[in-house]
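pinning this so it doesn't scroll away 📌
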Amino acid sequence: MVSEWVVDPVNEAPTLGALAAAARAGDSAAEYALLVEAIREGYLLHYGEPRVLDGLDSDLALLAGDYLYALGLERLAALGDLEAVRELSDLISLSAQLHAEERASGAIEPLWLASAVAVASGADPEHERAKQALRDGRPEAADALRVATRRRAAGAGLGDELERAAEAIDFPASRA
């Protein structure tokens, strides 16, 4: 049981979930927000400072992170949104690749924002090309992802939500 390590969140606001739920989630907006935030917490347990679990040893943090990844994807699959399952699966695997290759700095924040916008409004070829560039380690990849994300968010009417999410993850809106 990890319940003894649960704390009130103090770090980052849950705006990535709100961004992901902003456009196409419809009646399931709260569920989308929750599952994206579960996946974010899983990521933070693996690579950062978790928001709702504190004091776990490294092995338990990895297990809890894996559980939250699986929980988020399972709940999304139950909603029948296979496109979003693919997007968030890509996010998880690409995040792991970037950290393993020590290329996360400057790329993780744009990747999270891009993924949240893609869940909200769907991915497009520009987004997919930018993710492939990131996978391939191309130096322009993070910038291409930022451009694609801004364009997609603006087209879907999500500019304000993107800005709030960027600020919440300490990624200046001018760079989002």
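📌 and the second one:
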Amino acid sequence: MPWVRLDDDFFDHDKAVRAGRDGRDLFIVSIAYSNHNLLDGKIAREVLSHLAMKAGVEAPTAAAEKLVEVGLWETTERG
């Protein structure tokens, strides 16, 4: 079974705190999704709603924008 590594200090990290619960939860789900699909951290815009649903995030665009703002995600042409 594949797995991902998460630092035990992640929830206290400045970026995770500033991302808020929705951003943090979306980030964790995106790590697992990327790992499972061998995407090397690249998340397409088309799957944002799916990942948000899995994370229990009701405003995926706002959460994604927050992740970019705090530096946990970077915007690319595809996502």
